[in-house]
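note to self: dont lose this again. the chain is below, predicted strucutre after it. 145 aa total, dont forget to put it in the shared folder this time
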Amino acid sequence: MPEPSPTDPALEDVADHLYVIFCDKLPYCGCGTPDAGYRLIHQILTLAPLYEDQRWQQVEALCGTPGAHQLVLAALNDADLLEHGSVISGSWLTDRGRWVLWAIEQIGGIDALEAVIDGPAGYPHDAEGCTDACFTIPAEAKPAP
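---
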């Protein structure tokens, strides 16, 4: 069976909602090297929860400096991909963050993300806005308990 293509009609909705996350909810611009930013976000989300096994240190190393670490985690918390308690370094995934990881896999993985966002994806719902249901992993896609 062939790999799913980001241009498959069945994946258009997923791609459009990833576009909302990366181009609207995060402070992003398409110039420069956006792919490096997409990969950084993906790496951080896959490390969550950051309070386990000192994973926050891996995130700080990925970000380069403690200040950049603080700003990146704040942006991910502000975009509702991560949330935290008393210390931002101990952030964990939100439901929306879990959806982003699931959605990236649906469109063909992190290597396909830049082409999807720069290509066929755009604002869903005629740019009318999304609800929480838009960022919910379908029940049939969730692993059994």
